[in-house]
Design goal:
Blueprint (H helix, E strand, L loop, with lengths): L5 H15 L3 E5 L2 E5 L9 H4 L13 E5 L5 H8 L4 E6 L2 H13 L6 E5 L12 E6 L22 H10 L3 E12 L7 H10 L2 E11 L2 E10 L2
Parallel strand pairs: 3-4, 3-6, 4-5, 6-7
Antiparallel strand pairs: 1-2, 7-9, 8-9
Bound molecules: S-adenosylmethionine (SAM).
Length: 224
């Protein structure tokens, strides 16, 4: 029987414990983030190897942040010079949390947050120079919707993401995505094959080893 890997299990316990105490504030460099109960935190063991620090020099770019959570990546993009940022999340509480943090950091003139299942409510015909996607990465059945930020059963969100993403990219646009070798069957090879199936090539912008796992930041571009 497949079990939840240790790191996501520990992250779930931390998210639950923090949620019981209510909203709390985290400083990520110069960005202030209020983490609403059960929204994916920017300071978890999971996020330590995420890609906030890679979001630099986005002067004039149009950015979409898919699965924005607290809004951290969208805010980082706005502070890195993006001309506009759209940020979406499936969960109502994440949308509320991201809107709150966008205001808290004084970037509400640059960022629009809306509730959307991946690209479902992103208007067709709009294209972005950069799509940021820190999606759920553990292939495990979702038993508790409060931990939706961690689990992608059957890797279906990733499949839908790659099926639709190219329609939202400008000619030279790219997707930046963080991934780790956390669960059997949803490792790097599977991600790379899936992206290839939908016409994307990739480069690995960064590799780190942390908490007993390999973490990668991928850049995907449409082939041809
Ligand atoms: C791993 S968290 C990342 C949050 C944030 N981007 C960060 O880096 O801290 C994944 C986020 O994706 C959201 N999500 C999961 N499935 C989604 C979907 N189908 N459409 C939009 N957002 C989704 C979750 O609610 C969660 O906020």
């Amino acid at each position: 029987m497949v079990t939840i890997p240790e790191l996501p299990r520990k992250t779930m316990a931390d998210i639950k414990k923090n949620a019981e105490e209510g909203t709390y504030r985290v400083d990520v460099g110069s960005i202030k983030i209020d983490v609403f109960p059960y929204v994916f935190p920017p300071d978890s063991q999971f996020s330590r190897s995420s890609f906030y620090s890679e979001i630099t020099d986005l002067d004039g770019l149009r950015v979409l942040d898919v699965g924005t959570g607290t809004g951290i990546l969208a805010i980082a993009a706005a502070k890195a010079g993006a001309s506009m940022v759209d940020a979406v999340d499936l969960e109502t509480v994440a949308v509320e949390c991201a809107r709150h943090n966008v205001e808290l950091n004084g970037v509400d003139h640059l960022i629009n947050v809306c509730q959307s299942d991946l690209f479902s409510r992103v208007p067709e015909g709009v294209t972005y120079d950069l799509i940021l996607a820190n999606l759920p990465i553990v292939d495990y059945p979702e038993e508790d919707v409060r931990f939706h930020s961690l689990f992608d059963p059957g890797f279906k969100y990733h499949e839908r993401f790659f099926a639709d993403a190219r329609g939202y990219l400008s000619g030279a646009g790219m997707v930046m995505m963080c991934h780790a070798d956390l669960s059997e069957g949803s490792g790097f090879g599977r991600l790379e094959c899936l992206a290839g199936d939908y016409g994307f090539d990739y480069t690995i912008a960064q590799t780190t080893f942390d908490l007993g796992h390999e973490w990668r930041i991928y850049e995907f571009r449409v082939i041809g």
